Amino acid sequence: MSSITIPLKLINLQDDGFHLLVEIVIFKQSHLAVLDTGASRSVFDKTLLEQHLTENPSAEEPSTDESYATTLFSTSNTLTATVPVLKLGSLKLKKYAAVGLDLQSVNETYQQLGHPVIAGIIGGDILVQYRGVINYKKLTLKLYK
């Protein structure tokens, strides 16, 4: 069984807690995502999905589904789409069934606190399937193939 170790970034939410950020590659572009062990499902910024799916006619068209995902941040309108490749470190998830949420308010809050914007939230679907282990001392995420 091989493992993949991915570096994490810890950000302080003005002494109101912490978030872990992980680098992801989606649509061949590097972005940051929150690592959220409490999220049942990984989600991505709805605008990012819409932008790339409109530019890429071979990608599946998004469909509306209002009850598909719940995360720490939102339970509003969602869309579903197939992302050709999602990368976390050297892990490549092909034809990933993505859920899109409006992450604008999260990103506005992050920017007000001086943190980078995020493109998504990595949740339990990926963490459970690849037996994710978070090491806070080393600030790493280990996934097992």
From TrEMBL:
Picking any one GO molecular function of the record gives: aspartic-type endopeptidase activity
Q: Keywords for this entry?
A: Hydrolase, Protease
* InterPro entries associated with the record: Aspartic_peptidase_AS (IPR001969), Peptidase_aspartic_dom_sf (IPR021109)
State the Pfam families in the record.
Asp_protease_2
The cross-references to SUPFAM superfamilies, in alphabetical order and at most eight, read: Acid proteases (SSF50630)
Keyword Protease listed? The answer is yes
Judging by the UniProt lineage, the source's domain of life is: Bacteria
Q: Name one GO biological process term.
A: proteolysis
Q: What is this protein called?
A: Aspartyl protease
